[in-house]
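Two folds, back to back.
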Amino acid sequence: MTSVCIEIVEGNPHLRSLLSWHLQQVGYRVYQAASLYQARDVFLTRQPALVILDAELADGDGIEFCRWLQQQQQPLILMLSARNTEADIVTGLKAGADDYLCKPFGMQEFLARIEALIRRQRTPAAPAYLDYGALQIDLVQRRVYFKGEYIDLTPQEFSLLYVLAQASGLPLSRSELLRRAWPDAIDNPRTIDTHVLSLRKKVEIDPRQPSLIQTVRNVGYRFNAEILKANNVQPTDVSYRQKSIAENSPQSAIEGTREKSEVGSQKSEVGSRK
């Protein structure tokens, strides 16, 4: 059994512990969440392959959280619910659940459904990389590389870049980016602008004229993967940037003045000899 990561979002502590114990016994790595607040944080930090989701939670609607998970385009979802009408089941499946299990249920059936979901996992071994040619996003180590060179991002900058990249070029509003990339509920869209500015300084060749993370007027931001394939257009070139900074530094200006002065002195000496 491969060590597949599973998140359990269940309000009942006894059921949550019981399910976790049985899953661990057959080799799964399990992380628990008792609320939607915890669930979002666990998901963003652990990136589970499968989420077991209670439809009725004390701090929010499990159906809405299921829709949010569906937008992440990654996890399988098994919804648990005491609601057992056909309409309830259809609602859960349409919200993005891959399977729906009514409470109460037997443990053998529960484990069999988990195994069946893992077998038909949407992404064979949850993607380890998002590969855009020169730019690679390592989802396991949460690292970003350009031409094999590591780019040092903060955890929040990484989450922001990941969410933008996952949108496949579609623009995302600031409020949508806050919902997808921030583990805590934040009601300040300008937080996005601050982090985009910081991220651009690290991944753009000219942060004042960004080409990779583009501003979409009256909407928000989009990840422009096409620029990575364009002729000689690169999102970041550390050596180029360092050279540019060096050439325009005060020390460089002093040295340039010094060189001109020395050349002038040499010409004067030659003239006087003549």
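---
second:
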Amino acid sequence: MSKIFKKYTRITTKTLTEMKSRGEKISMLTAYDFTLAGIIDKAGIDVILVGDSASNVMAGHETTLPITLDQMIYHASSVIRGVNRALVVVDLPFGSYQADSKEALRSSIRIMKESGAHAVKLEGGSQIKGSIERILQAGIPVMGHLGLTPQSIYKFGTYTVRAKQEEEAEQLINDAKMLEKVGCFSIVLEKVPAKLAEKISKKISIPVIGIGAGRNVDGQVLVIHDMLGMSKEFNPRFLRRYSDLNQIITDAVSKYSTEVKSEDFPNKEEQY
């Protein structure tokens, strides 16, 4: 029997807290452009993340590190213009907040002012506490991100599951509690053991949104290009593909090219 949930005309940070308290799971996807953002917003997604994964799926970089603050603002501005209901969260890119809290605040203000976004997301725990506090003091909502933090990939040296050892798991729990205490409205947990993610979700009052963190958290997030089957190279265990747009687009473009060359397109009805 399907559950009946309250219908929200506009999702806010407060809405997400209400959803957790009601036991309603939060749906979240990435978007980087006006057209796709409009489609997934109309489809009823709760949160749209303008992720620094744009560095991978939009720009073709191996990691998320190369994308700049200006580029993130461009993507966020495009997304905002296509959205009416979802909460839009924007990643602070690598190098725009790590140096000091003043830089973190300046970067966050630029994102909010220039793109019209609703919140920012930062990777890390206790090491960036001061930056998070400074951003929050300016009235900017912050989403945390713990576990596998892709901006630190060269430190980790691998994309493997994090916090499998007791010491790292304990640090993750402490960081999650800290993010809640300083005022973050939600946390993304990436690639951590499902039991640990569930434990954290139960220990804190703010929503925990997982990617590769099991089913017993408060919501799920995936990269739109992965979920729709546009990219085929990325095949982690946690990914479920809901379509095969790679093949669909390939077939459509191939048919178009063939019909142009055979002069089947355009026909008499498709000209003036």
